[in-house]
Amino acid sequence: MALTVSNWRHSITLRLALAFALLAILVFATLGIYLSRSTDQHMAELDAHELLGKLALARHIGSQAESPAAFANRLSDALVGEHGIIVAVDGSSGALFRWPEEGLAASLAAASAGVGEQPTRLREDGMDYRAVAGNEQTGWGEAVRVVVARDIHHHTDFLDQLQRDFWWAVLAAAVLTVVVGMLIVRHSMRPVRAIAQAAGRISAGRLAERMPQQDVPPELAELVGAFNDMLGRLEESFARLSDFSADLAHELRTPIHSLRMQTEVSLNRSRSADEYRELLASNLEEYDRLTRIIADMLFLAKADHGLIVPHRERLDLHALCERLLEYYGLLADNVAVHLSGARLAAEGDRLMLERAIGNLLVNAIHHTPAGGWVTVSLHDEGGMAVVAVANTGRPIAPEAMERIFDRFGKLDQSSEGTGLGLAITRSIVLAHQGRISVTSDATATVFSVALPKSATATSQAAI
């Protein structure tokens, strides 16, 4: 994708490169200021050492001189070869000595009225000087004031040029840092671009593709792993959705096809009122089946989005199961049905729990051969009220156990049910913060529903 001006404003590459440049400028500027001040301080120390030495020399010569002329001669000889040094000596009667010329030395002597033995910076006629001054008692008995100064323009010029060169170097370093930083960041962002390209290739039909995890920087390894895990979950969800759509189409197609055929047959010739009445009754059964499928699907759709909110009330699970056995026991002509266990109470929605446990009970009765038995038992397990529905009959195959709670998951395709009962039961149990499990062997198949318990009674009952 081409980068526009708006994109560059939000570019991570540009931001990091500018951050590198700013950091480089701050580091170099701090270093430059430190070096500049250190250099200036070092030069000031050298100047002070030289100036105080010349002041001490003038005092020494003055203390031994017997006349102003002898003092001037000896001091002139001592200053031969000293470049940039200005000396002015004034006595009570006026100027006694000027070096190297009268005008410059006189002006510095006048400007240094407040200067002492601590080196002081002076500016005279656009030039920079550093000066010291002191009083002394001469050998001929006169008190004089000695001013020693040094021309430091070459120091300032050198430092100014050094600073200009340094700031140009800082600017060049900043530009270079931006360019190199952008190249480094762009190179470092190659794994991210590879991830983006891989993500762009993924579609609903290519969910099996995964991000390459080899040679991925450690900082991105967690992101790539999470993205691949997400793709795995999406692939599984799409597969389940595809299977569900196919099953739903199959379940809806059967009653619709039956209705269509019956209607077409009825229109082939004229029929009596009784025949039309039988046809409408048959159609009504198919409409009821469609209504149940649609209602169950709406219920599961709400459950998937957390819209099923049970009405909480204190329920006697033993009494609830007793009523269900009395109602559904009519279906168990050749099956023995029993209820046993403790009287347990739980907080939940009566209608929902009746539907959930009723689904398990109906399934158990339908899959129990003649002469078998169905048992509903209640017991306490780890602070949960457990309702277990067990029945004899053919055990559930291990490969079917993984999809037994799936929608339209029928173990016996010849059965008349929609295959939504166990899925609805699981949704109801989960909405009550409970859990559901199943075990099956040659002895019995047991569905266990564990619900948060609110009260326990110790009395036992059995039917």
TrEMBL record:
It catalyses: ATP + protein L-histidine = ADP + protein N-phospho-L-histidine. Its main location: membrane. The keyword Acetylation does not apply. It is a multi-pass membrane protein. Pfam families: CusS, HAMP, HATPase_c, HisKA. The chain crosses the membrane at residues 12-35, 166-185. Its EC number is 2.7.13.3. It comes from the Bacteria. This is Sensor protein. The lineage of its organism: Bacteria, Pseudomonadati, Pseudomonadota, Betaproteobacteria, Rhodocyclales. It is found in: Cell inner membrane. Residues 186-239 form the HAMP domain. Signal peptide: none annotated. It comes from Dechloromonas hankyongensis. One of its GO terms (molecular function) is protein histidine kinase activity. Keywords: ATP-binding, Cell inner membrane, Cell membrane, Kinase, Membrane, Nucleotide-binding, Phosphoprotein, Transferase, Transmembrane, Transmembrane helix, Two-component regulatory system.
